[in-house]
Design a protein that fits this description.
By secondary structure, this protein is α+β, with helices and mostly antiparallel strands. It has one domain: Metal Transport, Frataxin, Chain A, CATH 3.30.920.30. Strands 1-2-3 form a 3-stranded antiparallel sheet.
Length: 75
């Protein structure tokens, strides 16, 4: 299993947009994303200018049902 990459929130957001998510709405500095076809998938991405903490990124990937390999390919 590959290591989790250190990425910013902007790169994470663009990767999830490629995976079929869209920005449903934004509250403050957090974007709420939904999936186009799998409507039960919902995730909140903090939109800060620094790298995401590894545990935060892992939580985002679990909520979106995307593996680390798939995420690396989307980057």
């Amino acid at each position: 299993m590959p290591r989790l990459p250190r990425v910013t929130a902007r790169k994470t957001l663009s990767a999830l947009l490629k995976a079929g998510f869209y920005i449903h709405h934004q509250t403050g500095s957090h974007a709420n994303l939904r999936h186009n076809t799998q409507e039960y998938l919902h995730v909140v991405i903090p939109r800060h200018n620094k790298e995401l903490a590894p545990k935060t990124l892992k939580s985002i990937l679990v909520q979106t049902e995307i593996t680390i390999e798939q995420f690396i390919e989307l980057l």
